[in-house]
UniProtKB/TrEMBL annotation, chain A:
Protein name: ABC transporter ATP-binding protein
Keywords: Amino-acid transport, ATP-binding, Nucleotide-binding, Transport
Organism of this sequence: Streptomyces diastatochromogenes
PROSITE patterns reported in the protein's UniProt record: ABC_TRANSPORTER_1 (PS00211), ABC_TRANSPORTER_2 (PS50893)
Signal peptide: none
Family matches, as SUPFAM superfamilies: P-loop containing nucleoside triphosphate hydrolases
InterPro entries reported in the protein's UniProt record: AAA+_ATPase (IPR003593), ABC_transporter-like_ATP-bd (IPR003439), ABC_transporter-like_CS (IPR017871), BCAA_Transport_ATP-bd_LivF (IPR052156), P-loop_NTPase (IPR027417)
Any one biological process term the GO annotation gives: L-amino acid transport
UniProtKB/TrEMBL annotation, chain B:
UniProt protein name: Urea ABC transporter permease
Coiled-coil ranges from the UniProt annotation: none
Gene Ontology CC terms, in alphabetical order: plasma membrane
Source organism per UniProt: Streptomyces diastatochromogenes
Domain of life according to the entry: Bacteria
Gene Ontology terms for molecular function: branched-chain amino acid transmembrane transporter activity
Cellular compartment(s): Cell membrane
Ranges that cross the membrane: 41-61, 68-86, 92-113, 120-138, 169-189, 220-244, 250-280, 292-315
Key words, A-Z: Cell membrane, Membrane, Transmembrane, Transmembrane helix
InterPro entries tied to this protein: ABC_transp_permease (IPR001851), LivM-like (IPR043428)
Bias (Acidic residues): 342-356
Region (Disordered): 331-394
Pfam families noted in UniProt: BPD_transp_2 (PF02653)
Amino acid sequence: MSEPTTDRTEAEASAEPDFLKVSGLHAGYGQARVLQGLDFSVARGEVCAILGPNGAGKTTTLRALSGMVRGRGSVTLNGTELLGRSPEQAARLGVAHVPEGRGTFNDLTVEENLRIGAHLRTGPRWRGRPERAAVAADLERIYDYFPKLRQRSRQAAGSLSGGEQQMLAIGRALMLRPSLLLLDEPSLGLAPLVTRELFEIVRAVNEEERTTVVVVEQNAQLALDIAHRAHVLEAGRLVLSGPAQQIREDGQVAEVYLGVSVRSRKAG
Amino acid sequence: MNTITAALGTDRARRPRAALTVLLAAAAAVGAPFYFAPFQVFQLTMVLLYAVALAGLNLLVGFGGQISLGHGAFFAAGAYTAAVMLDRYDTGHLATLPAAAAGCFLLGLGFGVPALRLRGLYLALVTLSFAVFLPPLLKRLEPVTGGSMGLTVDKLQPPAWSGLAEDQWTYFVVLAVTVVALLLARNLLRSRVGRALLAVRDNESAAEVMGVRLSLHKTLAFAWSAMFAGVAGCLYTWVIGFVSPDSFSFVLSITLLAGLVVGGLASLYGPLLGAAFVMYVPSVSQDVSEAAPGVVFGLLIITVMFVAPTGLAGLPGRVLGAVSRRLPRTTAALDRTPEADSVPETDSVPEADSVPEAEPKSPAGSRPATTLTPADPAVVDAEPVGAPPRTEKE
């Protein structure tokens, strides 16, 4: 897998190319306009990487999708408009956002953190045992993906290592049974091997659950390894889009826009 | 503050010991009114009812992460609800309890609205205003509240079959309500709602993206908390038999908050310790001199905060931790002190442990790690010309 495979191609992409459709998305904070009209689509079951330098608007894009910042334009998920909704409403529609810096609940145990992920599914409309059993089954499923979390299930999340916290944040988001998983810089502050392990798990989740994933990353190499498609953002606009493989192989593109020499890295 | 998780009793191994503790506490609680003099029993009764108010405040401040300097107002509202019902409508004591609880729950729901927009000191200030405006209001509403003269109502009377003295009967009734209230608070925290509340305190925006409705849970925290204060106020009327605006000055609100912090925030038995502090410290120091209570109260708060920043409830854990750190590391049981849980969030140290574990799983493990390190500073900092400054992350 270190030689990452040509299997992530268009052939895999589903029959729903516009599962997530972003058109003319503008967003910002007060006076600072960060996104200047984004257009892209993500097919169902696809992993989409959003790359770019600091300040390009990657995080803002995810925040606009999950309702954490207000946006103009249109974002539809499976035909339903997402813009203008609160984060809680977006979560109800199946959008699970793993925020930058993980956002685990440090005073709660690992298991309690995961149960928060199932918060919506155990709501007032909760009808008792069947759903409870489903949540228990999902907990097991998450523990299978992340065996380290099982070992630490009764430990306070704040006592986990950074890598484990990131796993917990992703696991918690999966407890939502999302149709769209948004990952904001999962590699932030993690050791390279831990990051790689994490990305392999994301790939496994995507393959087994057919969860659509949008991942924002500074680490272009890793993100391109698991992505089907990639978009390069610069100063709030898309400057490049295409199949991940193509972007990976186009060394010049990577050097110009990402400041990374992908080819030399591969040679190493 | 991971005392919460420990205190919520997730650790099954501790059950037998916990059961024994509960049994002993129950025996002491039941035996106390037969052992102590009536005035001391009265004081214990007051400790119990303050504990109810503090348990409610703890839901809001300790577990909800919001501050209220206005809980004296809810306490007063509960007390006056009971007093007015007894005085005007002669409803009997029992009926006043649900009325005070429900009324204060609704009041809390209404006053919880500022909590949605304000936080920290701003919220504290707004809630303080409830406490400040209530006594004058009670004085003005003379036809209902009896004005500054207050209302005198019947205390609880023991039924003939019990064979108990008035103070003993009152104690047992208050004890029963307190136990129910404390259990309710505990179960509330263990429930889905409680989990959501803790999540909101830990990380608001992360809780929100998980589908937790901030507005609902913050307001509910306020309402539950006000309900407990109202129940405590109602008990106060039962015990004292007299309410007046001056009994509920804003000092009461501040005392409640101070008592909670001294007892231990976000701890399950902190409210009981805090209630004892609120009850006994002023009355004991009164024996020294007329002016002493304020001074002693203030000095003790400062002392406790320096010696036990986690409150009295956290003190045993801290002492145990300090002792076990001095002892040679032979006893594994003592190693797991509360302190040991609260490892700071730094990645560097724990990360080192997890790397070797990750190696065999990663197919790339055979490669030298350096080739996989695109996180070198040159890459992270690379900003193409024309990239705007980091505006996206506040």
